[in-house]
């Protein structure tokens, strides 16, 4: 499956951004999806995950209540709504797809990765 993420950009603390990821090449409704991020000098970390149908979602504590993952299987897209952004949310954000049912929180479970989109949050 091919993934393309877009929607990143510059924001101020407290602002909102919405990332989207378009998928092609595999039956999207059979693909659990996730978002990860990587800041300079840091390891890639889990941000959000959603199962095939969208009925189950997982988040790490540091984004709970601020970020929401969603998917539209009819449009082959997955989105990440990010509210109340903080400077520490600055990173390159990647969407990823897996084989199985999901949702998965570890990057090694994902087989397909988009190119990443930069999110920069200023204080």
Features:
11 strands; globular; 4-stranded antiparallel β-sheet; single chain; 123 residues
Question: How would you summarize the topology of this molecule?
Answer:
Elements lengths: L1 E5 L2 E4 L4 E8 L8 E6 L6 E6 L6 E2 L8 E6 L4 E6 L8 E8 L11 E4 L3 E6 L1
Parallel strand pairs: 2-11
Antiparallel strand pairs: 1-3, 3-8, 4-5, 4-9, 5-6, 7-8, 9-10, 9-11
Distance between the termini: 37 Å
Class inferred from helices and paired strands: mainly beta
Tally the helices: what do you get? 0
Helical percent range?
A: under 10%
Secondary-structure element sequence? EEEEEEEEEEE
DSSP summary, beta strand count: 11
Shape: globular
- The portion of residues forming beta strands comes to over 45%
Radius of gyration, CA atoms, in whole angstroms? 13 Å
Mean of residue pLDDT? 96
How would you characterize the overall build of this protein?
The chain is an all-beta fold. It contains no helices and 11 strands. The chain has strands at residues 2-6, 9-12, 17-24, 33-38, 45-50, 57-58, 67-72, 77-82, 91-98, 110-113, 117-122. The strands form 2 sheets. Strands 2, 4, 5, 6, 9, 10 and 11 form a 7-stranded mixed beta sheet that branches. A 4-stranded antiparallel beta sheet has the order 1-3-8-7, with no helix packed on it. The termini are far apart. The model has no long low-confidence stretch (mean pLDDT 96).
């Amino acid at each position: 499956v091919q993934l393309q993420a877009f929607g990143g950009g510059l924001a101020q603390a407290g602002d909102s951004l919405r990332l989207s990821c378009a998928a092609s090449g595999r039956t999207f409704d059979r693909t659990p999806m996730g978002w990860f991020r990587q800041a300079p000098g840091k390891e890639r970390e889990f941000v959000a995950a959603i199962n095939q149908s969208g009925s189950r979602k997982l988040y790490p504590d540091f984004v709970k209540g601020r970020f929401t993952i969603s998917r539209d299987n009819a449009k082959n897209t997955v989105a990440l709504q990010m509210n109340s952004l903080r400077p520490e949310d600055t990173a390159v954000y990647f969407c990823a797809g897996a084989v199985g049912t999901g949702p998965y929180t570890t990057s090694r479970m994902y087989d397909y990765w988009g190119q990443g989109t930069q999110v920069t949050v200023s204080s």
